[in-house]
Amino acid sequence: MTCERKRGLALLTGVFVAMVCYFLATVVLAQVSQDFGFTRSDLDSVKARYLAQASLNKGLHLLNQASGPDWERLYTEPNPPFREVTPEGWFELAIRPDIKDVTKIHLLATGQVGGHSQKIQMLVRKKPAVSGLEYAVLTDGPADHRTSTIYSKSEEQLDWSAVSSPPSQFVPGHTREAAPLPAGNTLQFVSPEGDINGKLFVVARLVNLNPTLPPTTDSPDVLWCYTPNEAVPPADRWQRLPQIDDETSRIRDLAIDQDANLYALRGNKDIFKLAVSSHEWTRLPIDAPALQGGSGSLSLTTNQEPYLFNIAADEDGAVFALTAYRAAPDTPLLTRPVAWKDDHWLALNPPTQVEFIKDPRTGKYSRRKIRGVKADTLRHLTVDRRTGQVFAEQAFPGNPAATIYRFTPQEIVPDSPVPLLKGVWNADPLPPPGMIYRSGSGWTREDDWIALAHNTVDQASNLLGVYHSSRFSDTIFQCDLTQKGWRHLHPIAGGSSTSDVSALGGGGKRIPGLTTQYLPITHD
Amino acid sequence: MISRRAFTLAEVLVFIAIVSIAVLGVFSIQALSLRYTQYNRSRHTAVTLLASTLSASQCQLERAFYADPSHPRTPSETEGFETAVISVYEPDLGPASNLRRVEAFVYWKDAGETQERSISAWTYVYRLR
To answer: What pTM value is reported for the model?
Structure first.
């Protein structure tokens, strides 16, 4: 009996082992099959996303081809079948009720591949064609006679021409009444900014050139507006803007949105808005956690409060700013981009830091992603008012090749610790320009990338930057963001061989006719 | 009386055969799964590479920093993978059109295989002016 039982047990054991093996094999195969399904699903998802994008772009193309406001016939646009799958893509037109004129249209496209669908929205707008105007402030002359002159040129012109200067006046502290300049003083012009109508806004600052005279410390900066009207005598083209208040802190930066509202950064904590409608200054509230870029876990002390050092505005009245702060005393300075939009501060997601490294043997540059904080110092923030894209430069210690980032806003994430303006930072298409400068023997080019000293974007999407030279005149570079790469502009005639471009500004001038351009807003 | 007869040779052989078949089956499926896991991993990498290639080409064309983003097969930063981009105008629209069709390809070979694999995706890009 026992023998029969053992035999039966052995048989059962064998069958059990076999079943365990079968079970294991089934599990492994199921896992592999599932993985295979996932990767196939990934591919279908990618195809569906780009199919939706294709539909939108086809729709945009048809929209641009259409004459007149007959948008309805663009309602549906199927795409041709593609290889092994039969994708479907279409777009639909949606006019938002809150948009009063038909200059902005939302397009929605869905791409379907292999049971996967992806939706993409696009905002299409009709906008006026604008010729870009560039402004540069040139500081020149010996130390005791240094003068500051504003120059401008249009996109089509090669040479710069001087803009008449604001009247030689200053405002003694607390008087709000203009007075002639005191002896030994001059006006220095800071932060020129042009609006879409070609007007120029600039800060005039009293500077004492004579060290033997006591400095005038209680004179606030004065804001001036220049209207380029040929029919008006040059002296009357300048209009003094109202003083913000009685404070004498310096105005560090100006920004103008598409509606010609003016923003002024005074000191390092206050942003004021001069509404074009009311012509009155209002102060934007400051939100310290947001100005830390969402790093809400920091415990700030008074001397660690973030300060603002750069502002720019976009078409929709959003004000972008760079803030700087230290997480703790004796720790590296951190900078964060933030935005004031719809009466709230938003933190922008910071860029993935990219450094361009020059190979000393080949002279070529390679890009390297920085893991961890090596140099977290963004600077020179500016905004393309046409597209809402934000530009900022980052310098790395010991490396002359700074990196220029371009940020495309996509969506607001309200549920973050600090509301987040999420977008994509891109460092690929905009390496810094190459070093080139004008010496007595002509243009000299060196095989080095350079950091910019100032930058701005005009209304025609030209990015301008300045390379400071210690021996020769500064060089102004221009990058057409829609067509070309970097090129250097003609030097400003009238400046000496060592003249200094101390500020740049961008503006524009409307030209007749309408063009259509699009602004992608979300990608699912 | 208790029977003490041992297992016969046939019984032992049958037992060994059953267990061997089961174990060999598991091993072979394990080997197969490793191969497919490798394949899935490669395919996942390829999909990621495809999306980034298409995205980069789209970005270049929209901004037109480069005259033509078409490029033949070139090794990617990921070892063992090659990418290619074909950018063509739609024949019915002509070269003056702002609309361009861009198709990206990723090629790779799995370890121990001679057959090359590829995936592709396409989109239309609208050039900004």
So the answer is: 0.67
